[in-house]
Every structure is written in structure tokens, then in C-alpha cells.
Amino acid sequence: MGKGEGSIPDEEWERFLRETEAGAPGAPEEPSARARMVARRLREETGRPEPWRGQRPARRRGGKGWYAVGLLVTAAVLVVALDPGRVTGWFGGGGGESAPLAAESKRPDQPPPTEAAGQLPTLGQPFKGSPAARWGDGTAGIGLPQARATGWMSKKQVARTLEKSRDFLAASSLDPGVLGGERPRKAIALVNPHQRDVQDYLATAFRAPSRDNDPLLLFSRFEKTKVRLVGDVVKTRGRITYREGKRGAVEVTTDVTYVYPVVRAAAGSDEVARTIVRREVVMSWDDPAKIVIEPDTFSLVSYKVDTTNGGCDTFTGYLTPKFSAERASSSQGDGPEVDPYDRSTSMEERMREAGDAGCGTATRS
User: How far apart are CA 114 and CA 27, in angstroms?
Assistant: First the structure.
């Protein structure tokens, strides 16, 4: 992204998005029409949803530590503001306490162990005492499977598709400019411009963020006038899987947890807080002979989001972590407890357990 990207007027950005929607002749189906059709079916049934977009139930607000549950596509959960008495440790970047974990190749069967109490983060060791201390740095923590010929793609094409899928994760959740509040232009460029519902969402989300059009559902962004990242390392743990989807497409599922250490933007600030975001994004890399799509882009199928200490029922377009003073004045959450480091539970299970609860309590950060 260019240095001045954040200054592009919203009108020019929306015009750019409209222009990229110009149809490509010859393909029998436009994915935006498919998305609208499936979204309509979602409102009428309760099975496993397939579209990129669905509905959101009402959310409730809570206290000490809480997360909010919503639904857009399949669902979205936001976990926020932790009870400081339960914080056993934070990020450990550069801590070197123990050897890094091998890349995640399958879902673990239990959550990571709880660290000893009192190991608070510091500017020099922002991941200290946290399971994330042994996680990978950036894309190194995202496991890739072996490529094999699938659907309309050869083995070589699948390998490239997996790399492009990981590129989207880097551009949407790890790029320093995007984390500092810039538009995720590189990530958006990977989304099929002919998927009209998605492009409408993207055009609105950065101009007027709301419950239904929240950029945080796909992108990680902080308001740099309020907080800044500690160092240049974001810890990650997760994996990418794939299978043959509809019409021979290669359907890629990414399930990754990102750990962001932050301090207040004011000069001299040294209290380190943490925002943890787990996203599951499902992408369909469609056969251009069957779907209207541009080269090297994917159609968004669905996503689920679970965010700790990033804001609950706040739709500013930015993650809004709380520090000790704000946590002390927060009220008790009324939703279920959630361990943000627990990857033994699938995102689908996490959404089902949360139900229509509002803001629940995170057990650690």
C-alpha cells in the first residue's frame, strides 16, 4: 500500500470499487447473485450456512471481561476487556522462554496450559507469560498443507492458491499500514470484484462502519491516534485447509488466531495490553469457465470472528483495546466464559456455544 493510501477520499474509493465491478462476459454465473440467493435462504433455515453474508442477532453488553456475539455470514464473536485479576500473562515476543511450537497441522485436542500468575507483559517482552510466546511470528505461525490436484486446478495451481490465500491473511491482518488504520487495499484486490454484495459491504464499511458493515469482520485495524503496536511482531497460530467446492472450485478455509500487543499512543506509555483476534475465513477460488471472476481473486464464502479486548458493540471501524483503568470501571459480562487461546474448539462450536449472548468473560489474555 502506498504511503498516502489512507488519504484517498471515500468518493474516489467507492468509484474505484464500482468500476472494478464491470462484468466479464462469457461466464454463466455471477457470484454476487449466488450470494444474495443463499443469504435469503439463510433467513429461512438453521442448517450450516453457505453464503458470505447473513443476519446478526441482537447483542448484550457486560462487564469485567466480555465478548459480543453477532452473525454476519455464519456468525461473529467479539471478546473484550478482560478482568485484570485473571490475566496470567501477555505476549512474549522476543522472550525466548522456550522453543517455538511446530506449525499447527490439525486442531489441538485441548487448550494450551495456563501460565504462572504474575507474569505481566513489558515493552521488551510483550508476549511474556502468554501461550503466544511460543507461537510463530506473522505468517510463520500459519500452517500450509501439502498441495494436490483438486477441482479445476493442478497441483502447482493449488500450491499457488494456498500461498495467495495466506497473502490475503497477511494483507488483512498483519500489514503494518492496515494495522495502523489504512485501507486494506492489497487484501481487497484479492476479493472477486464481481461479487456485488461483498463489494457493497467493502464500499460502506470504511465510510460508515456499523453492526452490519463492520470492517473488523475481515480486517484488523487500530486507530493510531489512540494506540500503537509494541514492536513489529504479531504472533499467530492457525492453519489453512482446502477441499473441492461447488462447480470444481478450490474452497480454502483459514482458521488463524492473531495476538496484537499494544500501548496507548501517548508518548511514554508503557502499560501493555493485548488484543486477540481469531478469524475463520472461507474462500472459493472459482473456475473462471464457470464463474464470473478475475484472475487471482476469490469469492468470499463465509467468515467467523472472535475478538478479545477489541471492543464490544462499538462500531468505529477500529479495534478498541482497554487498559487497566477502563477495565476497572467496566461492569460484569453476562455471557459465557471464553478462553481466547483455546483452539481445540472449532469456530462453529464457539458460535453455537455463545448462542445469542452479548458480552461474555474472557478467562485470560
Answer: 52
